[in-house]
Amino acid sequence: MSIRWTYAFVDRPRALLDPAHAFWSAVTDTRLSEPRGEEGEFATLLVEGADACVKVQGVGTGAGGAHLDFSVEDVRTFVDSALRLGADTVAEHDGWAVLRSPAGQLFCAVPWHGESLRPPVVAGSRLDQVSLDIGSGSYDAEVAFWSALLPDWASLRGALPEFHVLKPPPGLPIRILLQRLGEERPASAHLDLACADIAATTARHERLGASVVSHGTHWTVMRDPAGGVYCLTGRDPETGGLPGRS
């Protein structure tokens, strides 16, 4: 069972979908698809000359965040594997399913439709990672779950003790970072962009309406115009690795 493609979902409150659509389309140099869903809550960020790997969802409650969609040839086989490893089924739809990891992070299994061409770097940055933010007591089990669910992915210790990286096979567009929090709280997720120049990317995002929240060791935390938090990280936009690391 291999993952054929991955999507990063930008989850934002439905009332703030317009600024979310405008901002993330500009950041990724994409155009918005026609809305889908019973309330028009889903949209894809379409890329000229490549396959999309970012979608936007309007959520009915809460501030939103992010989640992953895994495109597979056999949804049932993937779901059964996830359940055996400790996931729960949240909802089953016609041909796809919503699941919850042991720590409570939502993710989806969806059919693969032939996607294969990764979008290019845009203005020195690339949205290439979903960070799963896990409470300290659940962290080790969550790392074990994702590593077992994605056996073809490289499971690597991060640059800091609280990080663990799941690096996909070549060609897949989205990596996973697991981050151990210093507190116990429900799992959540946010988006990370790899940036050749964090300061330049920060200035570009501010011009598009984002604001700086804080600065870390090799990242800057930002807030988009829809209120969602994401990170600009000092990683190579082509490889996803830190300088000197793959």
Rounded to the nearest angstrom, the radius of gyration is 17 Å
Please tell me the overall pLDDT: 96
Report the helical percentage. Answer: 10-25%
- Biggest sheet details: 8 strands, mixed
Query: Whole-Å distance between the termini?
Result: 25 Å
Strand order within the widest beta sheet? 2-3-4-1-5-8-7-6
The shape is globular
Unreliable stretches covering 5 or more consecutive residues:
none
Extended strand count: 16
SSE pattern: EHEEEEHEEEEHEEEEHEEE
Beta-strand residue percentage: 35-45%
Count helical runs: 4
Class from helix and strand fractions: alpha+beta
Fold and architecture overview:
The protein is built from four helices and 16 strands. With 246 residues, the protein is an alpha+beta fold. The strands form two sheets. An eight-stranded mixed β-sheet has the order 2-3-4-1-5-8-7-6, with helices on one face. A hairpin with a 7-residue loop joins strand 11 and strand 12.
Write a compact overview of the structure shown.
Helix content is 17%, strand content 39%. With 246 residues, it is of the alpha+beta class. It has an eight-stranded mixed beta sheet with strand order 2-3-4-1-5-8-7-6, with helices on one face. Strands 10-11-12-9-13-16-15-14 form an eight-stranded mixed beta sheet, covered by helices on one side.
